[in-house]
Amino acid sequence: MNTWIIDCSVAAAAYLKEPGCDRATALLASGDELLAPDLIEPEFGNVLWKCVLRGEITEAEAGKLLASLRQSRIRRKPSTRFVQHALRLAIETKRTVYDCLYLAMAVTLDAVLYTGDVRFCNALQGLSVARHIAPISSYPLPS
User: Fold this and answer.
1) Partner of 86 for a Cys bridge, out of 51, 100, 105, 109, CB 3.0 to 4.6 A?
2) The CATH number of the domain where 119 resides is what?
3) What is the pTM of this model?
4) What is the pLDDT of residues 27-50, one digit of tens each?
5) Is residue 143 part of a domain?
6) Which residues partner with 89 through β-bridges?
7) Res 76 pLDDT > 90
């Protein structure tokens, strides 16, 4: 079994059925171990809030989607465990501490972070941490 770190963009793609969500959905449905910092819940809540404001989903739907994430098999780890490392990575990579929390978790656990944020992946090319991040578009679909 593989261990993968997933960020909010992957969860949002799968739960909100965004374009290209097939790979995010496949990853969430895999038998692999899925981990995320506990930041994923408030971050996903913020995505849902924006969707409600834009009229894309109702408040009731947002509540159900958040509950679904909370009940998912994605194991959350305390963000505080990774925040010092995330700060160092954020300074080094010029990315936000929020994004780097997921990356710090991947580096600490020697795992790969799957993300829908292609700019984040591209910004890390050539750095030692690049081996710890992959675009969700590279996740293999089941045959």
Assistant:
1) 100
2) 3.40.50.1010
3) 0.94
4) 999 999 999 999 999 999 999 999
5) no
6) none
7) yes
